[in-house]
Specification:
Blueprint: E1 2-8, E2 17-18, E3 20-30, E4 33-42, E5 47-48, E6 51-55, E7 61-66, E8 69-73, E9 76-80, E10 87-88, E11 93-101, E12 112-114, E13 117-118, E14 124-125, E15 144-154, E16 157-166, E17 175-180, E18 185-191, E19 193-198, E20 201-206, E21 218-227, E22 235-241
Antiparallel strand pairs: 1-3, 2-14, 3-4, 4-11, 5-10, 6-9, 6-12, 7-11, 8-9, 12-13, 15-16, 16-21, 17-20, 17-22, 18-21, 19-20
């Protein structure tokens, strides 16, 4: 039996305590296959909607999962909540499991991320937002860009990632991304930003902890969307800095 435990520091609202512990346990193993259980304990404020990511170190693959929607892009794995276990109260836990395949060796993952934030361990307050009101017109030299990546897909849905980069010559204190979802797609949940949808138009505004970007700096935000057919990339992506 293999066991890996790691603390997760999760960014949240301003001055909110955040953190979690993740236990990855290989419950059974046979030639070419294994079963694993993953337990996530929320050590901070209650969360509603979670997404756990990790990277397999030796080419393992998930073949079947339960109590979570598990997708993969190569060695990178994403496990997202299902409808009945999205909420995790303080000091409460949620568990999911999967069967996987392996070849050669089957070492446990050594690091995890929860809702896009690297697992660094410990529990503490998040950074408070700036007290000053950003100007309505960005100062000269400020600009930002955005790129889109589809992380994974499954029947009826997919996961997307937005990478926001400060492309200007001065630091920015906030950003706002807009894009259009193709017909038949609808936003289900998002993280690391505030998401809003009206018709096909989606607006994404930075969270309190990731609005400030130095020149060349970047941050990410992610979302899950439903789709009635093959997922298509969003169109008309724009980024506005402040």
């Amino acid at each position: 039996m293999l066991l890996a435990a790691v603390g997760v520091l999760v960014a949240g609202t301003a001055q909110a305590a955040a953190g979690c512990a993740v236990t990855y346990q290989v419950s059974s193993q046979w030639q070419g296959g294994f079963g694993a259980n993953v337990n996530v304990t929320n050590l901070g404020d209650a969360v509603n909607g979670w997404r756990l990511t990790w990277t397999f170190p030796a080419g393992q693959r998930v073949t079947q999962a339960w109590n979570a929607t598990v997708t993969a892009a190569g060695d990178d794995v994403t496990a997202a909540n299902v409808g009945y276990n999205a909420a995790i109260a303080t000091n409460a836990s949620v568990s999911f499991g999967f069967n996987g395949s392996w070849s050669g060796t089957n070492p446990s993952p050594t690091s995890f991320a929860l809702n896009g934030v690297a697992c660094t361990g410990g529990v503490g307050p998040t950074t408070a937002p700036p007290t000053s009101t950003p100007p309505t017109t960005p100062p000269a030299g400020q600009s930002c860009g955005v790129t889109y990546t589809q992380v994974g897909s499954w029947s009826g849905g997919y996961e997307g990632r937005l990478t926001i980069t400060n492309t200007g010559g001065a630091a920015i204190s906030g950003w706002r991304v807009t894009f259009s979802l193709p017909s038949g797609q609808s936003l289900s949940q998002g993280w690391n930003a505030t998401f809003g949808q009206q018709g096909s138009q989606v607006t994404v505004t930075n969270a309190a902890y990731n609005g400030q970007l130095t020149t060349g700096g970047s941050t990410t935000a992610g979302f899950i969307a439903s789709s009635t057919g093959t997922p298509q990339a969003p169109t008309s992506l724009t980024c506005t800095s402040s």
